[in-house]
Amino acid sequence: xTSGNLRLYSFWRSSAAYRxxxxxxxKQLAYxxxxxxLVKDGGQQHTAEYSELNPQEFVPVLMHGNRILxxxxxxxxxxxxTWPEHPLLPAVxxxxxxxxxxxxxxxxxxxxxxxxxxxxxxxxxxxxxQAQKDEWMKHWIxxxxxxxxxxxxxxxxxxxxxxxxxxxxxxxxLVPQVFNAVRFKVSMKPYPTIKRINDECCGMEEFKNAHxxxxxxxx
Length: 219
Known about the structure:
By secondary structure, this protein is α+β, with helices and mostly antiparallel strands. The protein has helices spanning 15-26, 48-53, 72-82, 93-110, 116-126, 130-152, 169-183, 192-202, 205-208; strands spanning 6-10, 32-35, 61-64, 67-70. The chain is built from nine helices and four strands, in the order βαβαββααααααα. The protein has a four-stranded mixed sheet, with helices on one face. Helix 1 (15-26) packs parallel to helix 3, helix 4 (93-110) runs parallel beside helix 7 and helix 7 crosses helix 8 (192-202).
């Protein structure tokens, strides 16, 4: 589909960038990747050039022509508003609200406690070692997944995916968070519904092509 010159500033292992890559693929939109290494050279997100694009110095940033788009969930909704085909939100408001709520459980309540700047702060201010940082990550992912599993399990609105039988913004957020959970050795056994949905998603080409290891800057 014609996309009007989309360029995604992305880091291969960033959960937020991963969400937007999935969304772009589900929308069947062509885009270019502009890698931003979050560790190398002290973090390329801190350069003056990138800070002009995003004063928060986060990825992703999506450029649509000259328009600068920030914040992954807002970017996904922009894509839906701009290109209505292959919607990322259900047409029924009640269902759309549930998809947004699940997405925000992950993007607003789980992920921010586990991102790179939090890990750096724990280390620099409190002397946390790698084992302690890993335990922090596992704790907050597990707390979030316990609640998320209850929202998803045995709910008539849950289908093949988080909301119904078509991927939504909720699934765009879920899959990157499961990737992080597995990376930090969080057992998925207590979360069978999350695991089932993640497995369903990961069988789709749109999700496979967005996977961190499929990115041009993967290490």
